[in-house]
Amino acid sequence: MRTTLRRRRRGLLPSLRRVFLGNWTAVAVAVLALGAGRAARAQTPTPTPEPPRLLQDELDLQANSNVVQGSGARAFGMGGAFLARADDATAASWNPAGLSYLRAPELSVVWADSSLGNRKIDASGLLVENDQRSGNAPDFLAATFPIELGSVNGAAQLSYQRIISFNAERTITEPDRIRIVQSDGGFDVLTFGSGWQLSRRFRAGLTVNRWLNGYRQTIERPAPRTVPTRQNSNFTFSGWNVQVGAIWSPRENLNLGAVIKTGFSGNVKLARSRVDLFTAADGTTIPTSNAYSRPDLVLNFPGAAGFGVSWRPRSNLTISLDYTRTFWSKGRINNFFTLPATLPDDQAPPVPTFPTDFFPLLPYPTLNDFGQKDTEQVRTGVEYVIISRRLKLPLRAGYFSDGQYFRDASGHAPRFTGLTGGAGIILGSFLLDVAYVSEHGSYTDFDLNHNSIRSHRFFASLIYRHRRRP
User: Fold this and answer.
1) pLDDT digits (tens, 9 = 90+) for 329-388
2) What are the tens digits of pLDDT across the range 79-128?
3) CB–CB of 33/16 below 8 Å?
4) What is the CB-side half-sphere exposure of residue 117 using CA atoms within 13 A?
5) Residue predicted with more confidence, 46 or 432
6) Nearest to 261 by CA among 87, 401, 82, 68
7) Residues paired with residue 457 on neighbouring β-strands, in sequence order
8) What is the pLDDT of residue 343?
9) What is the spatial distance between Cα 229 and Cα 270, in angstroms, rounded to a whole number?
């Protein structure tokens, strides 16, 4: 055991100094590492043990850690409180029972744009890291068709959704170095869903989801203050899960909604490569390279359960409240590995071109052994529709509080909060909606640095409802 720990220290600590916790939206795998924490526990216990660190992966899910698996500008304009009010084309992403509300064929598309900033301040008040990222991508595409089976009405939908987006350009600036990160791709889902009105007051629905794609990432660390390096990662991912939902209306103006999303084990192939540029004593540049891949990683993606209430005190006024719990404490990744730099022959014995550390089982996405947490979301929103003859203008606002899956220096999971706003317009067969989401949070990490995070997201949805002529 001690020999293994010493090997891990030699393989990781010389090149990995600081842990980064950023965001998004956007989308995702920043990571706290392995090794030092386990060694600390094997010796004298400390009040706040520092988790081991592993810095090669610069993407993470923070500030989107709950992975809200819904989409649409209307829903996010209402703070994401849509489990009991899912009655448009994005219903399958929230609660598939809501597909039963659709009575005409629909085509829909959603676009998302995001940005995030994280300022890290040390105990003396100095800025030690400034992280800025931004990106955009299609968020949702769907075709929906109504179905009638005797006296039972429903609808079926085929859709694509980007659950977690990794499309981003990112710059991490520190006093002694700068890192430039470019990434693309996402955890995407192809879905077949159906929802049915089984009685006057009860609706139910189901989706079958095929998860696919992954992310591609390039990290560049230019000179002069550090050894220049370029690292590439290719993470491909696939799996299946289902989502079951129900909506019960004990009164005409009151909906109660519930949804369960099953966890699943997805297949992962991870390929890494890197080039490091060392400077010899005579000033010449010595390039070294390393590459490795393996196809047998397994990602245990967590399930989730949610409950919502939606009340319409007036026909043009809707108030909604949701609670969702995502079981991130069950998230694991198997057979993860790191890729060290290969040192020049004149500086150290050659390092074999394969990882010095394999990790049979790690929490995901934190990749540490410091107690990943389940997350809780509380979301509330309101929608008011201004009606003037043939024009309908919905106005929306919302608030949410999201618990994070990682722990801060005190050992507790921080909470981030946000405000949302949105509007829409209905013109004949077309519905155009926009929404803005502002989220912020702060916490103290294990280096006792204060992290202040702000994220901004913009959604635009366009829905076409084909109305049959009489």
Assistant:
1) 999 999 998 888 888 875 555 555 556 678 889 889 888 877 889 999 999 999 999 988
2) 999 999 999 889 989 999 999 999 899 999 999 999 999 999 999 999 99
3) yes
4) 5
5) 432
6) 68
7) 114, 437
8) 81
9) 19
| Cβ atoms within 10 Å of 312's Cβ, excluding its own | 17
Tokens describing residue 191: 């879905």
Average pLDDT over residues 445-457: 92
Q: Is 96 helix (H, G, I), strand (E, B) or coil?
A: helix
Q: Who's near 376: CB < 8 A, 6+ residues apart?
A: 323, 324, 325, 402, 403
Tokens of 388: 């003037």
Q: 291: exposed, middle or buried (C-beta count within 10 Å: 0-12, 13-18, 19+)?
A: middle
Q: What's the pLDDT at 428? A: 80
**348 vs 423, which has greater pLDDT?**
423
φ, ψ of residue 4 to 5 degrees: the values are -60, -40
Half-sphere exposure of 134 (CA within 13 A, CB side): 4
Neighbours of 44 (CB within 10 A): 6
Amino acid at 185: G
Q: What element of type H or E holds 360?
A: strand 358-363
Instruction: Annotate 233-268 with b (16+ C-beta within 10 A) or e (fewer).
Output: bebbbebebebbbbbbbeeeeebebbbebeebebeb
Domains in the chain, start-ordered, CATH in brackets? 2-465 (2.40.160.60)
